[in-house]
Specification:
By secondary structure, this protein is an alpha+beta fold. The protein is about 25% helix and about 25% strand. The chain has 2 helices and 4 strands.
């Protein structure tokens, strides 16, 4: 089960280009789910400490938003 709270705050998404120096919180959660948009920059929608948590949430997102393109990456 994931314990991520950032997915509930979707309006406050962080663009990859805006990520300067990562905060302490971001350094703890190195696995990120990125949503890919055509003709736009990718957006980080959630962060996790474990890859397995990120993969599980990725499956959930793909079920809820079937047309969305998501990617799990190590930041």
């Amino acid at each position: 089960m994931t314990y991520n709270t950032e997915i509930n705050n979707l309006p406050s998404k962080v663009n990859l280009s805006d990520c300067g120096t990562p905060t302490y919180k971001d350094r703890l959660k190195r696995w990120a789910i990125v949503r890919l948009f055509p003709n736009q920059q990718p957006v980080i929608v959630a962060r996790f400490r474990k890859r397995s948590d990120a993969d599980g949430h990725l499956q959930f997102l793909q079920q809820q938003i079937p047309d969305g393109q998501f990617l799990v990456m190590f930041d």
